[in-house]
Design a protein that fits this description.
The complex is a heterotrimer of chains A (392), B (354) and C (294). Chain A is of the alpha/beta class and 392 residues long. Chain A has two domains: 188 residues, Rossmann fold, CATH 3.40.50.2300; 145 residues, Response regulator (Rossmann fold), CATH 3.40.50. Helices cover 41% and strands 20% of the residues of chain A. In chain A, helix 5 crosses helix 6. Chain A is globular, with a radius of gyration of 22 Å. Chain B is an all-alpha fold and 354 residues long. Chain B has one domain: ABC transporter involved in vitamin B12 uptake, BtuC, CATH 1.10.3470. In chain B, 69% of the residues lie in helices and 2% in strands. Chain B has 15 helices and four strands. Chain B has a two-stranded antiparallel ribbon. Chain B has a two-stranded antiparallel sheet with strand order 3-4. In chain B, a hairpin with a 2-residue loop joins strand 3 and strand 4. Chain B is globular. With 294 residues, chain C is mainly alpha-helical. The longest helix of chain C has 33 residues. In chain C, the strands form two sheets. Chain C has a two-stranded antiparallel sheet. Chain C has one domain: ABC transporter involved in vitamin B12 uptake, BtuC (Orthogonal Bundle). Classes of the chains: A alpha/beta (392), B mainly alpha (354), C mainly alpha (294). Chains in contact: A-B, A-C, B-C. Chains A and B meet through helix 1, helix 3, helix 4 and helix 6 of A and helix 2, helix 6, helix 11, strand 2 and helix 13 of B.
């Protein structure tokens, strides 16, 4: 009995030999490097949805008279810096020509050397930490960076909300939150405000102590960039505490999870976003994206589930879409879509996307200077647009 | 005596063959294959598993603090070896950080081991008195405390707080971790076969009897703990070199549980078992089962159940099966011995002829 | 605001979270007392109970899903014991511990797979989720209900252990496994009963916990599970009142640390407290001194 079981186990392990070493000829593979499990799975899935939608619109490209198929190849990096290298290596072994992603700057930074060593260019969609492109010649990004975001939010809190004391709360050990808080603090203190800083350890469910700390510090605003899981806990507890202090957060909170958490309450939750789906002055590209993406989501129940069970468009989906399209623009400018040629043409690519005009500077960052600040509507599942800000 | 020497010589020859084989593999396979990546991670985990086996399997001290010492080793290596020119970029929030020099990689690795061993010594002073299960929880607690301290914003100028440390020197060839691991594992094997090793096994089998026979319990327990953590620290430094970037948040207790699983699957008290099991573990979880994460169509039949996450479920089921049916592990407490294999082959032949 | 008023919300939160830790800690301490096994999977059974309700209440009314969840959780605990722990009873201590880690690993990965990594919202249980104001701090009713319910359940449990035949059997088995077997006590039944009670308490605990913190993710039970185990060791492993006292102490001190501004170290502090207690009183606050027979 034991021996047959052992034999079965070994056979099971041997099966995937069949799947090894596949190579796509006549196809240009676009690697999707996103988390599909773990703390940031929700955001990662929404970003991936944008890319898949773009792939459904543009599935092939013509280069020099020949038609190439554009295939996407997804790998799960679980947003952790230690799982990222192996996941990146998997993409490399699948011979992708360009990589899109990831959600979670830490994983991008961890994977960058692997992509660099293989010569594969990478386009980040929503990773906002400056460290992603700094020092990585083959990493580009189409979103704004955290120092811009921190500036914008600090100005908003100080000037628009007229707040002089801010309470910052981020997760201990998480680089996105720590970085954004750092930039926010610098900008806020430069404007003349004071910051009371606090951190919570991973796995915290009880935020009442932290919210109470904010009240005791006399804070006028709670700046809390965190993943949506913790956000929903924070907001739920703020709701039962009848907290009057408004929340301000970064782009991670641009998600339907936040909207659901504030329903029926008096909470004021502001966050920065990359685009606005209700903007009447939006370009035709944006409007087409909004209608097309919603239709695509509603057509497939699995897509709807991955989006959180509704068709509210998360900003990261728009970014995923734009990242894919930018990659396509780059591929179109090459001769045969090889990774070296893509890397060569990317610096000069310009694409008018859903989230604005995408043009890269010498660091690989997109020259984006507009952020949309929105507030979550407590009566219906919607965002209310507040203002656009740009910093000189 | 003759057979022991023969066994040793055969062992050396096999090791040399292994290195030659790796060298050939490295230069012939295309660099995008997963095999080399798996070999690198596998051998690093092998070193860490053997170091944990030294403590848990050979000395019988149930300690769950491995991840904490790996963390110390990894961070020590990174902090000491990041090139000075990169520091202001990496320590972007802390004005370049306190440490403004860079040591060569080998020195960094050695310091990693030494610092981990030093902390193990300090931790061992109060903790080694406790009985087995309490020891486990206490070491687990220390690992968490170490992690909280390293992530502390106040220590940012030294450790970069919650942010990644990267751009330290890494290795390219697969021979580097193999050589480092071989040397370390060799030292551990020598330790196990010495009088100290026999004392460890005596302590594992019966503490009271060992003490009655004159073995200084505290000294030997500390020795085992410190040696194990020294190699865990070196393993942590090698892991940092493999990953290219480290973040304290990933050195959670989950990592210790994974190493413990490897040690038990390989067989507590068997060095070769730990080595084999760690390669199997790393290969299965990172490579062989990845196809289960993607949707698969056989013809036009959409296989149900296959979506991301399924790989880890299958993997956990396999682990449970091994734990339930192969209780003593793959190798039990035996080691790989060329002489025994030769004897078995000869006996078989003799059996058939008779 | 005077000192006490300022600290009151933290103490209230601490009492509430301490009650939840207590319900989980009892499961740990009972199993350890009898089997000398740290049931690493207990925290995950607690989380699975949360997911059971989430999925069932999507199609069934709460009146049905709450009892169903409790039954399913109890069955799960019973099944885990039969499949993963019973075969290893004669095996060395380490194997059964590894089996517990393996079950925990399996349950976590199953949850990641089934939920697809998306956090689930816990259904709102009426009345428990309503707000109430005490001494100028507003909180949910469940915060008050938790410690009351915990203490009641513990008193009931102590009655069971001290005044029933099954309870006597459990005490006998935890005092001396071999002799109890020789005396004719049905070991399997005793062990199953303790797992059933432990899982029942975990299910009730999860109901109270997730009403307070309504986001359920596969790893949400890991930290509370670990802290509950620390509480059990702190109070003296094998002693149920000890586990409860330990849990409340840990819950309150954890929140007071946050009040004093050292929130970075709130988790580390819990472990530091544990280590200090283990050094000063190695068998915990209420633990029995075991005599090592040579």
């Amino acid at each position: 009995m034991k021996k047959t079981l052992a034999l079965l186990l070994v056979l099971m392990l041997a099966l995937p030999i069949l799947a090894l070493g596949e190579n796509y000829a006549g196809t240009i593979t676009i690697g999707i490097f996103e988390p599909a499990s773990g703390d940031n799975a929700a955001g990662g899935k929404q970003e991936t949805l944008g890319m898949y939608y773009a792939n459904s619109l543009v599935g092939s490209v013509e280069l020099g008279g020949k038609t190439y198929k554009l295939e996407v190849s997804e790998v799960d990096n679980q947003t952790s810096a230690d799982k990222a290298p192996a996941a990146a290596q998997t993409l490399v072994s699948r011979n992708v020509n360009v990589v899109l992603g990831t959600y979670g700057s830490g994983a991008s930074m961890a994977a960058a050397p692997i992509f660099e060593a293989a010569g594969i260019p990478a386009i980040g969609a929503s990773c906002t930490n400056p460290g992603v492109t700094l020092g990585s010649p083959l990493y580009w990004r189409i979103c704004y960076t955290d120092d811009f975001q921190g500036d914008v939010l600090a100005n908003f809190a100080f000037n628009n909300l007229d707040v002089k004391v801010a309470y910052t709360l981020n997760m201990l050990g998480e680089d996105y939150g720590a970085g954004l808080v750092n930039y926010f603090t610098r900008a806020f203190e430069k404007l003349g405000g004071t910051v009371v800083a606090d951190t919570f350890p991973e796995g915290t469910s009880d935020f009442t102590a932290y919210l109470q700390n904010a009240v005791n510090a006399g804070a006028g605003v709670i700046f809390s960039p965190s993943s949506t899981t913790y956000a929903s806990l924070m907001l739920g507890q703020a709701k039962s505490m009848n907290l009057a202090i408004p929340f301000v957060a970064g782009d991670t909170w641009a998600s339907s999870v936040i909207l659901e958490a504030v329903q029926g309450s008096e909470l004021k939750v502001y966050f920065s976003d990359f685009f606005d789906e209700n903007d009447e002055n939006a370009s035709q590209v944006s409007k087409d994206f909004v209608t097309g993406f919603k239709a695509w989501l509603n057509a497939n129940p699995q897509n709807l589930t991955n989006n959180g069970g509704n068709d509210i468009i998360a900003a990261v989906s728009a970014l995923g879409y734009d990242a894919y399209m930018t990659a396509v623009e780059a591929i179109k400018a090459t001769e045969n879509g090889s990774k070296d040629q893509i890397a060569e043409v990317l610096p000069s690519v310009s694409y008018d996307g859903v989230t604005g005009m995408i043009v890269f500077d010498e660091n690989g960052d997109a020259k984006k200077d507009i952020a949309y600040i929105k507030i979550a509507d407590t009566q219906s599942l919607n965002y209310i647009f507040v203002t656009t800000t740009s910093i000189q | 005596m003759k057979t022991k020497k023969q066994g040793l010589i055969i062992g050396f020859i096999l090791l040399a063959l292994l290195f030659v084989g790796l060298y050939i593999l490295e230069n012939t396979l295309s660099s995008s294959t997963m095999l080399l990546t798996i070999l690198k991670k596998g051998v690093i985990y092998a070193l860490i598993a053997v170091s944990m086996n030294l403590l848990n399997g050979f000395t019988g001290l149930f300690s769950l603090g491995q991840a904490g010492f790996m963390l110390i080793g990894a961070y020590t290596y990174a902090i000491l070896t990041i090139p000075v020119g990169m520091r202001s970029m990496i320590y972007q929030y802390y004005d370049g950080g306190i440490v403004q020099f860079a040591m060569p990689a080998l020195v960094g690795i050695l310091c990693a081991g030494l610092l981990a061993a030093f902390f193990a010594f300090l931790v061992g002073l109060p903790v080694l008195r406790l009985k087995s299960d309490y020891l486990a929880i206490a070491t687990l607690g220390f690992a968490e405390i170490i992690r909280a301290i390293i992530q502390y914003e106040g220590l940012g100028p030294l450790t970069n707080g919650s942010n990644l440390l990267r751009r330290f020197p890494t290795f390219q060839s697969v021979l580097y971790p193999f050589a480092a691991a071989a040397i370390c594992i060799g030292v551990i094997v020598l330790l196990i076969n010495s009088t100290y090793g026999r004392a460890f096994k005596a302590i594992r089998d019966d503490e009271v009897a060992a003490e009655a026979m004159g073995i200084n319990l505290f000294f030997h327990k500390q020795l085992s703990f410190v040696m194990s953590s020294f190699f865990a620290g070196i393993g942590g430094a090698l892991l940092a070199m493999y990953q290219g970037s480290i973040q304290a948040a990933t050195f959670k207790s989950t990592m210790t549980y994974e190493i413990l699983l490897i040690v038990v699957i390989g067989g507590m008290g068997s060095v070769t078992g730990s080595v084999i099991a760690s390669f199997l573990f790393v290969a299965s979880s990172e490579w062989w089962l990845r196809f289960l994460d993607n949707e698969m169509f056989i013809g036009s039949f959409h296989m149900p159940l296959l979506r991301s996450g399924f790989r880890m479920v299958v993997f956990s089921v396999i682990i449970m099966a091994v734990v339930l049916f192969y209780r003593r592990g793959i190798m039990g407490d035996k080691e790989f011995s060329p002489t025994r294999i030769r004897n078995r082959l000869l006996n078989r032949k003799a059996g058939r002829n008779a | 605001m005077n000192g006490f008023e300022r600290l009151f919300p933290y103490i209230l939160a601490g009492v509430s979270v301490g009650g939840q830790y207590a319900l989980i800690a009892i499961g740990y301490t009972m199993v350890y007392g009898i089997l000398r096994l740290i049931n690493f999977a207990h925290g995950d059974i607690f989380t699975v109970a949360g997911f059971f309700i989430v999925y069932m209440s999507a199609t069934m009314p709460l009146v049905v899903s709450i009892p169903m969840t409790i039954i399913l959780t109890v069955l799960l605990g019973f099944a885990v014991e039969r499949v993963a722990y019973k075969p290893l009873r004669e095996a060395p201590r380490m194997s059964i511990m590894i089996s517990a880690i393996g079950v925990s690993y399996l349950l976590q990965n199953l949850m990641w797979y089934v939920t697809g990594g998306l956090a689930k919202q816990y259904p709102v249980i009426p009345w428990l989720s309503n707000s109430v104001t005490i001494l100028s701090s507003t909180t949910k009713i469940v915060t008050i209900v938790t410690p009351v319910l915990t203490v009641t359940l513990v008193l009931l449990l102590l009655q069971l252990i001290n005044h029933t035949k099954t309870g006597m059997a459990m005490r006998a088995v935890s005092r001396d496994f071999e002799t109890a077997k020789l005396m004719g006590i049905k070991i399997d039944r005793v062990i199953s009963v303790s797992f059933i009670i432990g899982s029942f308490l975990a299910a009730v605990g999860s109901l109270l916990y997730f009403t307070n913190y309504p986001t359920v993710t596969p790893t949400v039970g890991a930290m509370p599970g670990l802290k509950a185990f620390v509480a059990a060791v702190f109070g003296g492993i094998g002693s149920i009142p000890g586990a409860v006292v330990g849990a409340f102490l840990i819950g309150i001190s954890e929140n007071l640390i946050k009040a004093f501004g050292y929130s970075t170290f709130s988790d580390a502090f819990t472990f530091a407290l544990l280590i200090i207690i283990l050094l000063v009183r190695p068998t915990g606050l209420f633990g029995e001194k075991t005599i090592d027979k040579v």
